[in-house]
Amino acid sequence: MTTDPIRLSADLIRCPSVTPEEGGALVLLEGLLSGAGFTCTRVDRNGTPNLYARWGAKGAAKSFGFNGHTDVVPVGDAAAWTRDPFGAEIVDGVMWGRGATDMKTAVAAFAAAAVDFVTETPPDGAVILAITGDEEGPGRDGTRALLDWMKAEGEAMSVCLVGEPTCPNEMGEMMKIGRRGSLSFYIEAEGVQGHAAYPHRAKNPLHALVDLLGRMTAEPLDHGTDHFQPSSLQITTIDCGNPANNVIPAKARATVNIRFNDAHTGEGLIAWAEAMASEIAAETGIRIALNPDISGESFVTPPGPFVDLVAKSVEAETGRAPELSTSGGTSDARFVKDHCPVVEFGLVGATMHQVDERVPLDQIEALTRVYARILRDYFA
């Protein structure tokens, strides 16, 4: 490795890029990539920092893209950390710091692999890095902004690999070929306040709300599909803010989150819930507003040449044939999938978002070798 991914990881961790701050991370990467011949463009939107870097011709018939983020979640209680969260200390072969797992080291790994590849064996095609500072935040002006800009400018990736942590326990054991969709309902039920002893003079919104939640959870949404586990619907809060035991409240609220597979769409699930809410509202006279928010649709990149290429590279460098999974939460792959085929492979995610986030150095080196092999084999 000519470009040291461990040193680059440490330099990135030392940048305090807590969402939405850039913290110097993208400036650092732009300097490295520009020096290696990449054309770099800052694609900031609404104060969110983003970097697009391309080596090779614009509009190349064959282009390989990496996507990742340099923003990190807050450190939490700094006093609870064993090491400086932005110190990138290395102790007994382990690097400590916020972003060590999620995912500054993966960005360092694919940047190092890309720089060495285009320097040593210039490919017939383009290598693209699309890096955002807004994955841990709202996600409205990060990868979405990069993809919008790419479309407007005629820039394109043929395929893309997202470097999120994908391995549960051992390096190489899992890659992601898709993700479940995520939909939240912020439900509000409004009735008529009254005395608990005179319910005929009130309309209790809690009864209607509980009825709705009961119907939503009465039956499984599905039993899984070829590439996905069964969809999951979880009630995450119920609240009416009522301190009195003898008052029927006027309003009640609840939040429901659904992680859904490819048997559904977000709009289909909204229509399903709206039908139940309308029925209960007609029965009870309670006004019910669902206020849905779709943060991502489900998607899958079916096994084929691209998936096989990544899987074989992972096995060659780690000795493990990765499980092809769609488990976990959401990632920016949910945006990239509308642009080109996308998969995810990265580090073991055991300590991501935790106090004392850390990663063994040999995982950074292994990940860099995987990315380098993918590039070589893709352009071979």
Automatic annotation (TrEMBL):
Coiled-coil region: none
Residues involved in Zn(2+) 1 binding: 69, 102, 164
Cofactor, how bound (note): Binds 2 Zn(2+) or Co(2+) ions per subunit.
The UniProt record lists the keyword Mitochondrion: no
SUPFAM superfamilies in UniProt: Bacterial exopeptidase dimerisation domain (SSF55031), Zn-dependent exopeptidases (SSF53187)
Domain Peptidase M20 dimerisation as annotated: residue spans: 177-283
Source species, domain of life: Bacteria
Cofactor annotation: Zn(2+); Co(2+)
Residues of the active site: 71, 135 (proton acceptor)
Binding residues for Zn(2+) 2: 102, 136, 353
Catalytic activity: N-succinyl-(2S,6S)-2,6-diaminopimelate + H2O = (2S,6S)-2,6-diaminopimelate + succinate
Keywords attached to this entry: Amino-acid biosynthesis, Cobalt, Diaminopimelate biosynthesis, Hydrolase, Lysine biosynthesis, Metal-binding, Zinc
Complexes and interactors: Homodimer.
PANTHER family xref list: ACETYLORNITHINE DEACETYLASE, N-ACETYL-L-CITRULLINE DEACETYLASE
Protein name: Succinyl-diaminopimelate desuccinylase
